[in-house]
Amino acid sequence: MSRYIKAESGPGRSVIYTDVDGKQWKFEGGGRPWRNQNPGNLVPGIVSKRNGAIGKADRFAVFPDYEAGHGALLDSLKNMHGNKSIPALMEVYAPRKENKTKKYVAFIRKKTGIKGDKKVKDFSPSEFEKLWQAIEKMEGWGKEGKISEISPKGKITAIRKDEKGTIQSYQIEGYGWVSKSKGISLALEGKVDAVVATSPRGNQFLRARPNAETSDNIGELG
After folding, report:
1. Does residue 90 share a domain with residue 70?
2. Which residue, 146, 178, 198, sits at the end of a domain?
3. Number of domains the chain contains
4. How many C-beta atoms surround the C-beta of residue 171 within 10 A?
5. FRET label pair with 50: which of 85, 188, 193, 208, CA 20 to 30 Å apart?
6. In the predicted model, is pLDDT for residue 96 greater than 90?
7. In this structure, are 106 and 14 located in the same domain?
């Protein structure tokens, strides 16, 4: 298994991981917790940082693997919310503006069997285990998607033109939509499966399938 050292949002709702060897991998489909290896859906902050978060995607922290993300959840529950009861914990962990907090509280109570205002720090080992298991389930952990290696050179999959037909931006695998100038820069760096061509008027653009001509042969993508 690759050891990931960096992560960021990718095309669509995917997450792009970079491993220790510089290879990139796309996590797509599945649930957000799986894509981020963040079973508790923790946001970036002190806890995620000290537990090895390697980036951010869709507002949430990204961890190199489940073990790191799971450890961050346990750290948060024990050291940030230990003095809270289940209702107080959920008001902070799953605020009403973003969640159905009452439903969340009811679910946690059902799974842990705790009905009163017992604080998290006073939970027995068994009760605490049921707590984090319930949170991970409620957050959507377990919905796996697909992991695929990204070609060292991303392919151009679409282009955008203005009303005059001039290319304004490219959609490139692994990078999403980038400006024309950024696309050219990436191609010059050898990161895009294309070459930089120059039109008769002296304007630069990318050709996806190099040949002897300098005409725009990705035009049909528009």
Report:
1. yes
2. 146
3. 2
4. 18
5. 85
6. no
7. yes
